[in-house]
Design brief:
Strand content: 5-15%
Number of domains: 3
Radius of gyration: 50 Å
GO molecular function: phosphorelay sensor kinase activity; protein dimerization activity
Strand order of the largest sheet: 1-4-5-2-3
Main location: membrane
Shape: rod-shaped
Order of helices and strands: HHEHEEHEEHHHHHHEHEEHEE
Helix content: 55-70%
Catalytic activity: ATP + protein L-histidine = ADP + protein N-phospho-L-histidine
Number of strands: 10
Keywords: Kinase, Membrane, Phosphoprotein, Transferase, Transmembrane, Transmembrane helix, Two-component regulatory system
InterPro entries: HAMP_dom (IPR003660), HATPase_C_sf (IPR036890), HATPase_dom (IPR003594), His_kinase_dom (IPR005467), Sensor_HK_TwoCompSys (IPR050482), Sig_transdc_His_kin_sub3_dim/P (IPR011712)
Number of helices: 12
Largest sheet: 5 strands, mixed
Oligomer: single chain
């Protein structure tokens, strides 16, 4: 029997390339969105302080921090209206300013520049990223150079937040574009890979033993070429396996025919000779008792030898050919086999036999094989299973013959079938393989061994039985 496929013993999780591709595309778009958003946040936050420093240097170069001359310069008050010349810079670079007098008291505060709409959380995040200690200080002077206060420059957080929000919107639009392209790629890949479902189903059928499974001619050219190459390989495999099965079936038929011929020769030729010998030994024994008592020990020895030879020949004939199979049919032979095991165990083990179907119309090769499989299954259960109950079920279904031999022994793990050598299960596996069937060993519930055999039945097996 071929080894059980790995997917049968250990089911493999389903894998769909379309889903995996879609998941990767979504994950890529999400990572792109997060990376772009983080980069935009870092770029805006890291540019706040350098921007204010450049603004301060520009104000100094343009001398926009110098106020006009007034009489009584030492008594004059400081007014924020004199700084209207900074409004133009605020239109270019948004910022906030605080005007402090010579005593450090704020006399005016304003923010220059336009602040766009943005969520409140954006400003908080930007402040936390840039830090609150950003800004620049400039002296405020009056002609002819008297320091009268200072000008504090600070970020215009609402305007900067609006700028960040604008960058994020651009990132969202870019991500949406990437998602649209990814969706188109996913749809194209899904359409191209749609035939893979049928291809996987074909592979599973072939793995299960259906050698007629073929790849459908669908999908892109690459998949069609793969499918065509697979179909050619499957054709060769089917032809090879078919030829091997025919050869194995023929060898099995020849072997059973030779056994049947040898059993007949032993029964007819050697049996008749032994019968004649027993008759002659009986005459010798009678003459020895009447006339030559000294020959009695030899006559008794010859009698025992003849009886032993008859028993040995009968046993060999039974091993070569199931008794009564040709005369009474498979069903009666199986009933007699199970009944003989029942009598032999004298009540220690219970046996049950269930047969569903007309099995007497099968050819000799299949009938003998089924009998041998049941015989070996019972032997294995009794000798190795330590069972107290053995059930044999034989049924014929649309897909062929099904045989099950189950015991309630203490076995907790199915035995492994050897690759070579040995008897018993190995012989059963070879016979099942020769008939193109499958053999499986399972642990019964709650313990014990369940032997399941499936044999395909074709028209040749339903031929009329040979004359006998």
């Amino acid at each position: 029997m071929p080894a059980e496929p790995a997917s049968v013993l250990f089911p493999v999780p389903g894998y769909r390339l379309q889903r995996r591709l879609g998941a990767w595309l979504l994950a890529g778009a999400a990572l792109l969105l997060l990376a772009s958003g983080g980069w935009s946040l870092w770029r805006v936050a890291s540019a706040v302080d350098p921007q204010l420093q450049r603004l301060a240097r520009t104000i100094e170069r343009l001398r926009l921090n110098e106020l006009g001359a007034e009489p009584g310069v030492f008594q004059a008050t400081l007014a924020g209206e004199e700084l209207q010349n900074l409004v133009g810079l605020g239109e270019l670079v948004p910022f906030c300013l605080t005007v402090r007098n010579i005593h450090g008291l704020a006399v005016d505060q304003r923010c220059l520049g336009t602040a766009g709409a943005h969520p409140g959380g954006v400003e908080s995040l930007l402040r936390a990223t840039a830090g609150e200690e950003v800004g620049a200080l400039l002296p405020l002077v009056r002609y002819p150079g008297t320091r009268v206060g200072e000008l504090a420059l600070a970020p215009h957080w609402p305007a900067q937040s609006a700028l960040l929000w604008q960058h994020w919107w651009q990132t969202l639009v870019s991500a949406a574009g990437v998602l649209a392209v990814a969706a188109l790629a996913y749809l194209a890949a899904r359409r191209a890979l749609k035939p893979t479902g049928a291809m996987m189903a074909t592979l599973q059928r072939l793995e299960a033993g259906d050698l007629s499974a073929r790849m459908p001619p669908a999908g892109p050219r690459e998949l069609q070429r793969i499918g065509a190459q697979f179909n050619r390989m499957a054709d060769r495999l089917q032809d090879t396996v078919g030829a091997q099965r025919q050869l194995a079936d023929r060898l099995l038929s020849v072997r059973e025919e030779e056994r049947r011929h040898l059993a007949r020769e032993l029964h007819d030729e050697l049996g008749q000779s032994l019968t004649s010998m027993r008759a002659e030994v009986a005459i010798v024994d009678e003459v020895a008792r009447e006339s030559v008592p000294a020959l009695l020990p030899s006559a008794d020895a010859l009698t025992r030898t003849c009886e032993g030879m008859v028993t040995a020949v009968r046993h060999i004939v039974q091993q070569l050919r199931p008794p009564g199979l040709e005369t009474f049919g498979l069903k009666a032979s199986l009933e007699q086999l199970v009944d003989s095991w029942r009598r032999r165990d004298t009540g220690r083990c219970g046996y049950s036999l269930q047969i569903d179907g007309d099995f007497d119309r099968w050819d000799d090769t299949l009938s003998v094989s089924v009998f041998r499989l049941v015989q070996e299954g019972l032997t294995n259960a009794v000798r190795h299973g330590q069972a107290t109950r053995i059930a044999v079920v034989l049924s014929e279904r649309a897909d062929g013959l099904h045989l099950q031999v189950q015991d309630n022994g203490p076995l907790a793990q199915p035995p492994s079938l050897p690759d070579s050598g040995g008897q018993g299960l190995l012989g059963m596996r070879e016979r099942v393989q020769a008939l193109g069937g499958t053999l499986a060993l399972e642990v019964a519930d709650p313990h014990g061994l369940r032997l399941r055999i499936h044999l395909p039945v074709h028209e040749g097996h339903h031929a009329a039985p040979a004359d006998h």
